[in-house]
Amino acid sequence: MSEPDETVSSKDTREVIMEATFRALRQRGYGDLRMRHIGEEMDLTRQVIHYHFDGKDDLMASFLEYIAEQYEGSVEVDDDMDPRAELDARIDQCLFGPEFDEFTHWDRMKVYHELFAHAQNDDRHQEILDDHYEQIKGSIVAVIERGIDEGVFRDVDADRFGQLVTDAIHVGRERRISLGHEEAPEEAREAIDEFILDSLSVDE
Amino acid sequence: MSEPDETVSSKDTREVIMEATFRALRQRGYGDLRMRHIGEEMDLTRQVIHYHFDGKDDLMASFLEYIAEQYEGSVEVDDDMDPRAELDARIDQCLFGPEFDEFTHWDRMKVYHELFAHAQNDDRHQEILDDHYEQIKGSIVAVIERGIDEGVFRDVDADRFGQLVTDAIHVGRERRISLGHEEAPEEAREAIDEFILDSLSVDE
DNA sequence: GTATAACTTTACCGGACGGTAAATCGGGGG
DNA sequence: CCCCCGATTTACCGTCCGGTAAAGTTATAC
User: Fold this and answer.
1) Mean pLDDT value of segment A75-82
2) Which nucleotide is nearest to B57 (CA to C1')?
3) How far apart are the C-alpha atoms of A32 and A24, rounded to whole Å?
4) N or C: which end of chain A has fewer CB within 10 A?
5) Across the interface, do A114 and B120 touch by the CB < 8 Å criterion?
6) B129: nearest CA partner in chain A
C-alpha cells in the first residue's frame, strides 16, 4: 500500500493523513500516538487511514519516508556557491532551519529523532533512516570533494570529514531535543568550525 | 514510592523487578514494554510491581535512575593514573565496556539510548538524564582539569573539551545502536583521538 | 439514468492494557 | 498457639486499542 496511487483525490488524502500524523506525533510523541489521534487531526475519520495504508506499521514507515523526503528536499544551495559557503549553508540548514508550512524545524527534528531512536527495534525504519543518513552525509562529502578539487580545501579523507560533520550536527540537535539544552545547536556549529572546518582550510 | 524501603526482602524484590524490567526492555523495546512482560521475566507475579512502585511511570523513572547509577558506578580508575591514561580509560569504558552480571554493555546502551530519546516527552526522565549527562561530562572535565594543573595538557577550556568528548561518545554509540553501524564506536574513538585529544597535548 | 469503481462513514468487535480489591501466605512477638 | 502485618497471589474490571464489515456517498463513463 505504499506505492503511489493513481487518482488525484487519493494522493490528496494520503497527504492529508501524513500532515495529520505529523501533528499528532508532535503533540503526543511516538509512544503515545494512536490511530484515533491522527483521525482527530483530520477532517476525515480515522478509518480512511486503513483504506490508504496497511495498518499502523505501514503508515509509520510511509510517514518516515515522507519526513525524510521533506528533509532532503528542503536543502537549497546555489550552483555557483563556493564550496565553503555551500558547506556552511548545508550545516546551518541541518541545525537551524528552514521552516515550511505549519511546522517548525524543531517540530520536524523532534519527530525525526524520536523515530531515529525507535529504529533499533524496527528493521524497516532502520533501513529508511540509514539510507537517509547516507544521503545527508553524502551531500556533505560531495561538497568537501568539490572543495578539494577546486583547491580550497586540503586533501583530506572527504568521507571521514563528512561523517564527522554529520555526526556533530546530529548530536547537537539531539542534546537540544532530549535534554532541553537550548544552546546545543549553536555550540555544535562552533565546534564544527573550530575542530573540523579549520583543519579543512588550505590557509590555516 | 521511589524512596528506599527499610525491610530486607522488599529491597531484594525491588532489585528483582529492576532486573526483570531490564530483561523485558532489552527484548521488547520501550514502546512495546508491558507490565505483563516484566512479570513474565520474574518468579513473582506482575502485581507485586504495583505494591512496590506507584504504577508504570514511577517504575520507569526508578528504572532510569537504576540504570544511570549502574553506569556511573561502573567507572573504575586508579587514583595514581596519569590524566591521559585516565581519560583514555573513561572514554573506552563509555564506548566499549565493561560487562557485568548477565547484561552486556550494548544491552545497557540500547536501553539507555531508547530512554534518552523518550525523555523529550517526559520531564522526569529528562531531569534524570540531564543530571546523568552532567555527571559523565563532569568526570571527563575533572580529569582534563587535573591534566592542565599537572602540565600534561594545554590550558584549554576544560568544560568545552569535556562536552566535545562526551558528545562524540554519545553519537558513536547511537549510530551503532540506531543505524546498526558496528564500526561507529571505533570510529568515534579515533575521531576523539585525532581531533580532540591531539590538540590537548602539550607536545604536539 | 444507471452501472461501476473509488472513496468515506457508521457501527462494531475481540483482545490487550494498566490497575485494584480482596484473599492468602509466612514469619516474628506475645 | 495465634495474632499481626508486610508481602504476595488470585480474580477481576473498565477502558482503550487497532482493525474490519458493511452501508453510504460521490464522480465518471457509457
Assistant:
1) 77
2) C18
3) 9
4) C
5) yes
6) A179
Chain B partners within 8 Å of A172 (Cβ): 167
Question: Nearest CA to B114 among B53, B50, B173?
Answer: B173
Rounded (10°) CA dihedral B85, B90, B94, B96: 30
pLDDT in tens, A82-129: 999 999 999 999 999 776 667 889 999 999 999 999 999 999 999 999
Q: How far is the CA of B80 from the C1' of D20 (A)?
A: 69
pLDDT of the residue at A2: 37
Q: What is the pLDDT of residues B159-203, one digit of tens each?
A: 999 999 999 999 999 999 999 999 999 999 999 999 999 888 886
3-state secondary structure A95-157: HHCCCECCECHHHHHHHHHHHHHHHHHCHHHHHHHHHHHHHHHHHHHHHHHHHHHCCCECCCC
Q: Would the CB atoms of B171 and A171 count as touching at under 8 Å?
A: yes
Cβ-based contacts with strand C at under 7 Å = A 5, 7, 9-10, 13, 43-45, 47-48, 51-52; B 33-36, 47, 50, 55-57
- Give the three-state DSSP class for B109: helix
